[in-house]
Every structure is written in C-alpha cells, then in structure tokens.
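Q: Structure for this?
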Amino acid sequence: MKGTTAHILRRAARSLWENLYLNAVATGVIAAALLLMGVYLSVQYNVDRIVRTWNQDVHLSVYFKPDTPEDERFALRDRLAADPRVAAVRYVSEAEAATWLAEHVPDTAPVLAELGDDVLPASIEVTLAPPAADMDAAIASFAEEIRSPVVDSVDFGQQWTERFHAFLSLLKLLGAVLGTLILVAALFLVMNTVHLIVYNRRDELETERLVGATGAFIAVPFIVEGVVHGTLGGGLAAGGLWLVHRLVASRLQEAFGLALAGQLAFLPGSWLLLLSLAGVVLGVGAALVSVQRFLAQAP
Amino acid sequence: MIRLYHLTKTYGDLPALSDVSLHVAKGEFCYVTGPSGAGKTTLLRLIYGAIRPTAGKLLVGGVDVARLPRRRLPALRRNMGIVFQDFKLIPRRTVAENVGLALEVIGTPRELIQRRVAAVLGIVGLRGRGGEYPPTLSGGEQQRVAVARAIVNDPSIVLADEPTGNLDGAMAIEVMEILQAINLRGTTVLVATHDAALMKRFPYRVVRFEHGRKVSDG
C-alpha cells in the first residue's frame, strides 16, 4: 500500500513537472474561477453583515395629527418609553422638526420661514431594542399597535425595506446564476486543459494500457494532479481575494468614511476552506472526465 | 493456447480478415506471414484485444476475447508480451523504465523491477544501457528494448509484429534467438513477418495469409 501510494505520487509529480505549462494553466483557470466566486461571496457576506448591523438599529417615526393635544402626545411617548421592546424614545415638536430640516437642507429655510414653524408634524422617534427573530414582522406588528386616532402615520421605511430585501433576493439569485455559470465555464476550461495534458501523454498512456495497465493505474495520478490543481488554485484565489479585499476595503472606507468603518470583513476561514474544496472538486472532476474520455477510446 | 473459429474482421465494407480458423498450441512457435495488407497485424491486434472481431470466436488461454469486457483486458494483456511494429517505447522514459513498465503496471516492487530489468537487458544485449533514452538508441537497439519489455514479466504468450523489420541480418538473428529461447522455456510465440530468409533459418510452422484469408498452414 505504502509502495503503491509512493508510486502514484511519483507518477503524478513527474507528470506535473513534464507538463508544467499546461498544469500551470489548469491551476490558473481554477484560481481565476475561484477568485470570481470569492469576490461574489465576499460581496454577499459583507452585505449580510451590514444588514445585520442595520437590524441592530431599528427606528420608527410616529407622526401626530396636527391638532393632537400635547398631553395626548406625551401620554403616547410615556407609554412607548415603558414598553420593554423600546430602547429609546424622543419627542420632536413641530418647531424642532422645522429647525432640523432648515439646518440639514438649507435651501428649505426661506420656505419654512414663510410657512411658519408648524408646517411639519410633531413626532416621536422610537428606537426599538433588537428583536430576537423576524425583524420585519416584529416592526410591522409594533407599528400596527401604535396606530391610534391621534397618530397620522408610522414610518419605519417599509417601502424602502421591501425594496432593499427585493434587491438582496435579486443579488442572491444573480450570484447563484453567475456562480453556476462561472463554475461550468471553469469546469469546461479546466477539462479541456487537462484533456490537453492527457492528449500530450496519449502515446505513453496507450503503451501503458497495451502492457496491461488498468484504468485506475492510469487515472489515479491524474486525480492526484487534479487535487494539486485545486489546492494550488484555491490558495492562489484566497491570496488574490485578500489583495482585492485590502484594496477595495481601503478605497470604500476612504469614500464612505465612518459609515463603513469596521464593517467590511474578509471571508471567514471556513468559507475559504469551502472555496478551496470547490477547487479540488473542480480539478478532480475535470481529471476524471478527461481520463474517462481517453480510456473509452484507448486500444 | 490461441484458437480462432471462423474469425472475420471488417472495417466498414473492407474485410481485413475473412473466416479465419486457426489453433496455436501451448508452447508452439508459429509464424504468420503474407504480403502487406494480408491481415497479419489485424490478427495480432485481435488477439491482444485492441480491436473486436466482426464475427467468429477467438479464445486466448480459454478466454473469449471477443466477449471480454474492457475492464478485463488488462488481465489478458498481463499474460502476454507484445512486440509492436513501431516499438511503442516512451521517449521520455529511460530504457530501464520502458522495460520495467510491464512489471510496474502489475504493482511489482521497485527492487524486483530493477533486478528483472537488469537481467532482461542482459539477455537482449543491452546490459548497462538502462539509463539511456530511446531516441538516443539505434532502430535495432530500440527493437531489442521492445523485445525486453515483452518478455520481462515471463508471459505465457509473446506476440511479435515484424520484430526484425528494422534490424540488419546479424541483429535480426539475435532477436530471433531470443524469441527462440523464450519459446524453449514453454512460451507460445506468434511472429508476424514477411522475412522469408528468417523463416528458413528458424524453421517453424508458417501460416500464410493473403487478402485477409488463410491460404496455407504448415
């Protein structure tokens, strides 16, 4: 057994060395495919992370009807403040709302001055404690509970949230389709490259077959080569991904500053391991298909 | 050892062998002769399972080669030594590695391969040449490497396709003497050749083919 393993490894090492260029191409194709997959996974991973962070900061604006008496507004504020699901509440009067808008959108200041202080509705800004599960449902049901005759509307960005979730679903679907296409294209390219390696050695393999070599004797070293292609390709892709991450993260953080600080993370080790495993599967799969194709035609 | 019953092989509409029946006994030395295109090489290729007959039955050591599944071909070939007309030596492997290939595929330990290869290279007159590569050898030397590879695993059948085709007179006689010696040890030897002088010098049974048909046997 020890002798057989050593023999297989020796044959694989020899083939790798004798077909260095084609083996480098096969490894490069796997690395490129995995890098593309890795970039997609990184985007997905970081979007998920950022969404999770946003979920920690759930915010609602409760707008009062214009003629709501002040005591009823404060009563609602106090009721909300006492709710265990609420982390913080802040009452914003019509005048405070107008001042905030004038400060943040200076172009509106003259219009607001002309229309008066009470043009914007008073509101209660509610920050919810992070819900344990199903954030969307929790907010929707909380907003429903708040609705009363004094409340004009409750804004928790429902429309925006729905659009954002639709965008995320589309991103995931697009990623899955793109990922599948990349993997199929990579498999095709790697298969053809390995096929070239097999073709390069066809005289030798035919002779082996004619002197009594079994299919396994011929195939196993190619499988070992496939493992080497996949592992090296995975390693190269991980390295490339790290460089891309460094480059993109620093550019994005320069552009968005504190908004992204500490939020862009590199893929965790387990994800990188899965990516490398995908490379090995790709390498071995391509080797098996190519060798099978040769064996089916060999004398 | 080798039995053919009404064996026919056609390529499309072209018959390569037509209705050939033949029996080569265990330990026999037999020539298959005839002009180019007579079907000599086709016959050998059928015997080692590289091609399948169109009709008829072919038994080698009791095994029906025509019906043998592809996965069982290695077992059939491990019991044969084949000297190919074009040698089929691997240029990137040394002489010793080429000769040892027949042992390597059956998982023989390296040390044993080295010992067997050295002994066989001695038999074919290439002692001490194991480290050289086939392209650096003459045609005759390459032919002898091919013979060495065919006999290294002590096969019960040796098939040789024009084994002296590339050799001068003295070298051809040496190779024939090697095949004769193998035959004397009990190995069945089937040689495809059109070298009449050689057949006269080493007289054995001669089966003659013309246009894919057996025309004489004796």
